[in-house]
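I am writing to request your help with a piece of structural work I have in hand. Thank you for your consideration; the sequence and its tokens are set out here:
=====
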Amino acid sequence: QVEVVESGGGLVQAGGSLRLSCVASGSSFRFSTYIMTWSRQAPGKERDFVATISSYGSTTYADSLKGRFTISRDSAKNTVYLQMNNLKPEDTAVYYCKATVQRDGGGYTDYWGQGTQVTVSS
């Protein structure tokens, strides 16, 4: 089993910055083999993709967030980060981290964290 834990959320003024962290662990967990993804969910809305980083370190961002958010990973610490700059009120949401691994048969298994709240005031 894999446990995923997010941290770093809080209250920030518009234009400010936050850095979220996500630590993944497990009995047989090998962080370097996992794809790590950040998503977010605002009240009353669907959970939306934010950014992902592959096991090779390549990154993908939601188009609307490119240039403001940066995802990175530190394999030595089993941690993925989301640096959020120039925050806007519409960024207010619960931010979730997901670890994804490819199974031997070719499918994928996801492990979700419980989320961390980010609130941006105007």
Observations:
- The chain is about 0% helix and 55% strand.
- The two ends are 40 Å apart (CA to CA).
